[in-house]
Amino acid sequence: MLRNAKLAFAFSLTFTALPQQATGQTSATRVQTENSLSSNTTQLNEVTVSATRTARQIDNVPSSVSVIPAATIQKQGARNLKELFRNEPDVTVPVGPTRFGTGGSPTGRAGQEGVNIRGLGGNQVLMLVDGIRIPNGFSFGPFATGRGDYIDLDGLKSVEILRGPASTQYGSDGLAGAVSFRTLDPTDLIRTGQATGGFVRGGYASIDQTWSSALAFAGKNDQWQAMVLGSYRQGHETSNKGNNTAQTIERTIPNPVDYNNRYLLSKAILSIDASQQLGVTVESQRRSQNTDVFSARAVPPYQARSTTSLITKDHVERDRVSLEHQFNDLNAQWIQSIDTRVYWQEAKVNQYATEQRARASERTRDNTFRTQVIGVSTQFQTSLTGWVNQRLTYGVDLSQSEITALRDGTVPPYGNRFPSKPFPDTTYTLGGAFLQSEIELGALSLIPGVRFDGYNISPSEKGYSGSAITPLTGQALTPRVGAVWKLHPSFAPYAQLARGFRAPTPDQVNNGFANLASGYTSVGNSALKPEYADSLEVGFRGKAPGLRYSVAGFENRYQNFISQEVIGGGGRPSDPTIYQYVNLTKAKIQGIVAQVEVQVGSRWTLQTGAAYLNGDSEINGVRAPINSVQPLKALLGIRYDTTQWGGQATLTYNAAKDPSRIATGRTSQFATPEYTVLDLGVYWKPTPNLTFNANLNNALDAKYWRWSDVNGLTEQSRIADAYTAAGRNVQVSMRYDF
């Protein structure tokens, strides 16, 4: 292990990710990255908001943060979160192939399952859009919903990735980190000196034969700003390196898919006076996907009840309305800034399936998971001067969600009835208050903070066939302290000690289901406790003419991990296996991440870096590797920029997954081999308003597997090629700003 750590550190000085050195944007100042794509060089005034809920330069926060602006999203041609984060060495987005069934594995049904930060993902990573939580993912047998498909990249002006516990800032769920998505404002579309502006954009991606288009328009006068943006994307299945075209379970090429995504974002902002603004945002998304699941079909001759056809129709919806009030007056005596947001959001996933079976009745499944939330968030800032300069940030967050799920269809499993609920309708309340101080002592910045949170899970027995557990409540105190010592521009060490927590979710507390024919059942747990994380990160950064670098080492210790485990039973109809969500003992993930950027002349830039992670969990005194921890990843990038054109090349190396670092059950998990992928990109601006982008991804047509995508694939599997990534593919786009 020590040898591998040393190897990773050596790699870190020669490889890194391109987008995490991108320019950040603040809401108060427009940085015209959307219209100025001729340069993507690192800026020394990168700004993050997610790290402290205040605007600070990335070099002046005691944690690791990446900021990806809209310009980088457009240059990459990213269609989704997986492509957006592909050059982040310690961030992944699991997406499995669409090989699911009506009564078996949900592989690929959840789409983009979520974001994995430094070895943990799913609901243990907080995801926010303009400060509003994205709903949790949900899994129940073959019914599985993800979180990444709630996001549309066309409406974003920046994305921030915060590593480490984020509970002091945001409360529950930020156990491994937080991803903050910020949507465009009207002034992001209007050029200086103009009253109106906007853009039109179109593109094509061969990886799934996607055609996309977007149109945005904004206007302003002395009092009002307003904008509207609409986008549409239509495509098919994501390609891979499989070659078996059989229309049965032996198939390794992707199943046929047709999907479309529609997105609308509109905003209006009223300037009440020189210090106050009132704004309203309306956001709506609709995603539909139809899949002919050839891989679910049995191989003839058919046995009784063998699947002969499976066709699915999945729909994802998200709507939100938010009202924001901002007050900013630097000359005010006590409170210089107030930011208040009141919001409503509804998200729904519906998954419908029609299955034909040999010598058995057709069966259907119609499953729905819905989250409706209302909330309010208020944040204040007070600057104090005297013998010490400090900025106090304090406020409250409160939200109440109505979370429901319904299973319906025909021919239910033996011992079940339709419609049924996998858990009772639940009111889920989260509330928290926080206080943070940013203290400036010359070259030393101290940032202590603390937050108190409470939660309440209140189920309803209406329509629920099981026994709902009485309301479950809990509290958490999450302190954090960080420091940055700007000893010299070329060397600035920093450190942060933080605690995070994640409250249990309604489906974990109340989980009641029985499939006696298959010999299993699940039960709720009234004693479920929150998950906790204690994190220490230590690092240093530096910059000099033509050079910038950073090195970070971290150790995250977790307690009360929530996991669904077997607690009894023999697996027979008369003695079914009993599953229950329980708190595991503890877990630990540690690692090192390093980055270097070198500016060669005025046009060439080299960027390098790597991430090495290692993690184990412990259950009843038995240690085992954490499978969600990714193997060593390293990148090397080179970029050339002029006023009118430029290009970049990125070489990505992923080490093989060590079989000894895989926790296995009754079967051996497939261990991914090492791979190296080359991506190329160019842009051309024939006029200041017109930009063309082209990308050749996996230029050498390598065949490889991502560790994040092969969950459930066994070592002896004959369909391993179905889990491969795409081969050589191209992406082109055009944008015109007016």
Can you describe this structure?
It is a single chain. By secondary structure, the chain is mostly beta strands. It has one domain: Maltoporin, Chain A (Beta Barrel), CATH 2.40.170.20. The strands form 6 sheets. It has a 22-stranded antiparallel barrel. The protein has a 5-stranded mixed β-sheet with strand order 3-10-11-6-7. A 4-stranded mixed β-sheet has the order 25-26-30-29, with no helix packed on it. The relative contact order is 0.14. The N terminus is likely disordered.
Biggest β-sheet: count, sense, barrel?
22 strands, antiparallel, barrel
Classify the secondary structure makeup into a structural class.
Answer: mainly beta
CATH topology: Maltoporin, Chain A
Total strands: the figure is 38
Which architecture name does CATH use?
Beta Barrel
What's the Cα radius of gyration?
A: 25 Å
DSSP helix fraction: under 10%
Strand residue percentage: over 45%
Number of helices: 5
Unreliable stretches: 1-44
Give structural attributes:
22-stranded antiparallel barrel; mainly beta; Maltoporin, Chain A; disordered N terminus; 738 residues
